[in-house]
Predict the structure.
Amino acid sequence: MIESATISNNLDVYSLRQQFPALDRKVKGKPLVYFDNAATAQKPQVVIETLNQYYTQYNANIHRGIHTLAEEATAAFEATRDTVRQYIHATSREEIIFTRGTTEGINLVASTWGRQNIDKGDEIIISTMEHHSNIVPWQILCQEKEAVLKIIPIHDNGELILEEYEKLISPKTKFVSIVHVSNALGTVNPVKKIINIAHRAGAKVLVDGAQSAVHFDINVEDLDCDFFVLSSHKIYGPTGVGVLYGKKSLLESMPVYQGGGEMIKEVSFKKTIYNDLPYKFEAGTPNIADTVAFKAALDFVQATGKEKIRKHESSLLAHATAKLSEIPGLRIVGTAKDKTSVVSFVMEGIHPQDIGILLDNQGIAVRTGHHCTQPLMDRLGIPGTARVSLAMYNTMEEIDALIPGVHKVKKMLS
Ligand code: PMP
């Protein structure tokens, strides 16, 4: 681990790092520098301990049991729902549906609200910078319903062209699905404005919060989004858990997603009566352990202080951007005015994958490739980028270690 005694923006990053055991390991004999946080964040000890405690103390199936272990497991699982509700400022716990992740949340909305409300000729709007998981479910729906997918274009710097968005809106627009923060570029989209414009036209809006929920204070009431989706593993929690927030009236009006146990009140061969929210959308045994431990992650983030984390991450972003920009032949991809925690770059004559492999040899983990945003890469005319994505535990020293690392890559390959 890089020894950093720095207190950055009132955040004691050195103490913080000690709570993430994975940061202590070595890679290829070098201290790990983990810059792949947009793909998944490392987990604090408290999350690992919560998982351990669940399996050693109160592993049981939830909701149906009356024995002590089942009651403890149910209480812990439902406590996460309350924490998520408060974390994103939803009005009611019934609006919090547990999923496998962002991807499943979007698929759920496309195949329930979408199937019910989208007809032939209707229009759905997404943007050029969407993750594949916010493209493909809508393509499937449009194919099935003979609906039309419209795409908001972007400027070369990675900002949405809002005037073009307004032009795409028509009486046929039924749905807008938009990413809050781009995983490939770090662009922060003005989602409140986008939602407002869509609502004026009577369309519903889903916000893909996979990259934003870890960095910002999310207030779904204030945003007035109809749906908001996120993944636990990007907020220092376990993999395999996500959240779909939906406005209660919408969730109530939607058909069910999957059939099975838990989502029913009564089943007979003639007729099945579905359960109330949120259980209506939670068929089968959920990912209990990881959902329970997700609460520990959210509590950890809130105890650390979102505002302190945000300030620290902004200093890191500014430092990484300035230092990388100084390297001749390196070009930063995505220079929107409003950005967070991601620096994507390309280097003249060097394939992004080679940058990733050579940095890994120096213990530095970055992501390379198209970042599940192939249409965005096509628009930018590049096969992919090398991406540095930052988290609360990253330090200025790690960024300083990246720079000679990149110079070394350049020297070896150009
Ligand atoms: N949207 C965005 C913006 C993402 O960054 C990701 C994850 N890379 C997803 C959606 C999909 O999230 P998950 O794989 O956790 O379902």
In short: The first strand starts at residue 7 and ends at 8.
